[in-house]
Amino acid sequence: MTLRMYAERKKINLVSVEVQLSHVRLHAKDCEDCETRRGMLDEIRSEIHLAGELDETQRKRLLEIATRCPVHRTLSSEIKIRTTEV
Predict the structure, then answer these.
(1) What is the pLDDT of residues 54-64, one digit of tens each?
(2) What would the pLDDT profile of 6-52 be if each residue is shown by its tens digit?
(3) Residue 26: beta bridge partners?
(4) What is the pLDDT of residue 38?
(5) For 65-82, how does the pLDDT look when each residue is reduced to its tens digit (9 = 90+)?
(6) What's the confidence (pLDDT) of residue 34?
(7) Residue 34: phi, psi to the nearest 5?
(8) Is the CB of residue 42 less than 8 Å from the CB of residue 25?
(9) Spatial separation of the C-alpha atoms in residues 71 and 73, rounded to whole Å
(10) Distance in angstroms (rounded) separating the CA atoms of residues 42 and 74
(11) Whole-model pTM?
(12) Can you spell out the DSSP letters for 41-80?
């Protein structure tokens, strides 16, 4: 949704967007670019397919915008889950 709104505002010929996510658990020590060095980590891998007559600059910018969407920002921030009985 974020990409579609950005493309429309900038008049970019984005025909469709397809996103595939996968989830893996890995040892922190095996992750070269992770801050955490102990225990296990959750890694979400995102593959984005952009369809339309887009030049390389537009594709690069759209991928940058994808990392700014609310869902991406929530998942990449520190998350606390507080459970209460109601």
Answers:
(1) 999 999 999 99
(2) 999 999 999 999 999 999 998 888 888 777 788 888 889 999 999 99
(3) 41
(4) 84
(5) 999 989 888 888 878 889
(6) 79
(7) -105, 145
(8) yes
(9) 5
(10) 14
(11) 0.77
(12) EEEEEEEEEEESS--HHHHHHHHHHHTTSHHHHHHHS---
> Distance (Å, rounded) from C-alpha 79 to C-alpha 32?
22
Tokens of 7: 């493309």
Q: Return the structure tokens found at 49.
A: 């397919």
Q: Could you tell me the two tokens for 67? A: 């990392």
Of 49, 27, 45, 46, the C-alpha closest to 37 is: 27
Token couple for 21: 């996510």
Residue with tokens 């030049």: 55
Q: Partners of 22 in the beta sheet?
A: 45
